[in-house]
Amino acid sequence: MYEMKGRVRYSEVDSSGRLTIPALINYLQDCCTFQSEDLNIGLPYLKKRGLGWFVTSWWIHVRNLPVMGEYITVKTWPYAFRGFLGYRNFVLENEKGDVLVEVNSLWILMEVKSGKPFRLPEEMKEAYVLEAALDRDWGDRKRKPDEQAEEAYRFCVQGMHIDTNGHMNNEKYVAAAQECLPKGFVASDIYVEYKKSAMLGDEVICEQSRRPDGMQVVLRNAEREIFSIVEYKR
Fold first, then answer.
1. pTM (whole model) above 0.90
2. How far, in Å, CA of 209 to CA of 219, rounded?
């Protein structure tokens, strides 16, 4: 298990003073990235081989989000590798060791230029230590867009959205989806599925639909192809 300690910054909280979901995703990404760096299979290793890890799904269960100034620890570990797929769990804890957030995630190792999946090299498998998965039913991996969705707003992908893989960063899709939520909306479970990478200059259309137990936000391009589906459950 790998862990990263931190403290919730003012720049990471919403109007209620609690950590935002996009900021949470940044902590998750940073934690697993630092693990790879410390194992010498991080960005320099991947860049040399033309590879990159791409997350396809987040399952996020929130018990309680930390507040500004609170000391936190993010822990992560892979629990399975299958071909080019990597399965990884995370937990976010407070200073007392109480679990605030539990997360499941699915990643694909890909050739950056071709966009084709790439089977994990043995040296990468050997570097990571597999541990038992969190004991939780995370639900289905594939979701369908609601038919009754309505457009909320649209934007153009700018340079500030782009990461080292040349695509819109994972957190930015969720940040865009958050703008569709009603004021004061609080979710206990968030599911994020990535289907297509948004690139510099792409138009992103955000569509929202309300459900009895929450909301769904779908991010599409002008051709109606789906970039991401984000679901919120109270």
1. yes
2. 12
8 A C-beta contact, residue 146 and residue 216: yes
**Residue matched to tokens 């457009």:** 151
CA 15/CA 32 separation, integer angstroms: 28
pLDDT tens for each residue of 28-75: 999 999 999 999 999 999 999 999 999 999 999 999 999 999 999 999
Q: Note the pLDDT of residue 202.
A: 96
> Could you give the CA distance from residue 34 to residue 3 in angstroms, rounded to a whole number?
9
Residue whose entry in the numeric block shows the structure tokens 């984000």: 230
Does residue 234 contact residue 213 with C-beta atoms inside 8 Å? yes
Task: Answer yes or no: are the C-beta atoms of 151 and 220 closer than 8 Å.
Answer: no
Helical segments of the chain, H only: 21-38, 43-49, 122-127, 170-178
What's the mean pLDDT when you consider all of the chain? 95
230 — alpha (psi -120 to 50), left (phi > 0) or beta? beta
**DSSP reduced 3-state for 16:** coil
Q: What is the rounded distance in angstroms from the CA atom of residue 181 to the CA atom of residue 184?
A: 8
